[in-house]
Design goal:
The longest helix is centred in the middle third of the chain and has 29 residues. This protein has about 350 residues and is an alpha/beta fold. The strands form three sheets. It has a six-stranded parallel beta sheet with strand order 3-2-1-4-6-8, sandwiched between helices.
Length: about 350
Amino acid sequence: MAMINRLRALLSYSPFHSFPSRSFSSSSSSSSPFENVGFIGLGNMGSRMANNLLKAGYKMTVHDVNCNVLKMYSDMGVSTKDTPFEVAEASDVVITMLPSSSHVLDVYHGPNGLLRGSLLMPRILIDSSTIDPQTSRKLSVSVSNCTLKEKKDNWETPAMLDAPVSGGVVAAEAGSLTFMVGGSEDAYLAAKSLLLSMGQNTIFCGGPGNGSAAKICNNLAMAISMLGVSEALALGQSLGISASTLTKIFNSSSARCWSSDSYNPVPGVMQGVPSSRNYSGGFASKLMAKDLNLAAASAEEVGLKCPLTFLAQNIFTDICKDGHETEDFSCVFHHYYSGKSEHS
């Protein structure tokens, strides 16, 4: 029930009611080789991404495990389906935005999954979930072993792209996400205009799984830099230097980074960031812990020494165990390092 209430709050915030039923016109959809777009996973990120596709004029078919969410889309005139397989049957391309690798595997390989049987209607399957690159690569092989029901525009076999995003809910709402894309370059180029209906930037990262690898590495660097900045600012406070003064020094010298100049973790130093609103909103610590788990597992699989990865993993796991899993990950400054707000 708590999850449903959170989704209702999300949906009341999202401008769903502003969309007329399938009466859109846009150069985005007309320039794309895909008219019928399926979308599976209408949570915090997925709902906003789907909304931007609707605004761009795409004919959408959607699915989510939450019936209340589906009803809201149905009331808007959007086609809804009970299973991923039914979405695939109605779509030229299908996008998934799901919480974890297990959810993605179920949507693809489940009894009523996207890959039920060996004949596919969609020419491209795009997974924007944050999952491990190994799973992305296995799914890419599974998709390439399928056959297209209808061969259009010289497409011989279906293709998969792993295309996780950076920017969070705010960028998803604004349509300013960055997509990190792995897979075939031809499929990437074909899907680029579709992705740009939901984002500002697309970066081709190479073969299958490389988009997922890029996302994991990006979030790993983000976690470690936040820990470094938080540790230095907390130490500075203990040595008698205000966080504002130390931040000015960081941002005009070699310590400058996103965690210091754009997402400062000290309450009272910067406005408009989670630390200024008691660490609400932003990127939840539990999501950072999940991404660090993926990074740690990937490091172990390839046999690479990554001591900072495992240290960061332990710190954010402890933050979550202490009851701060829904707070923004910059709360590590306060809850782990016992840092103080600027005016306390």
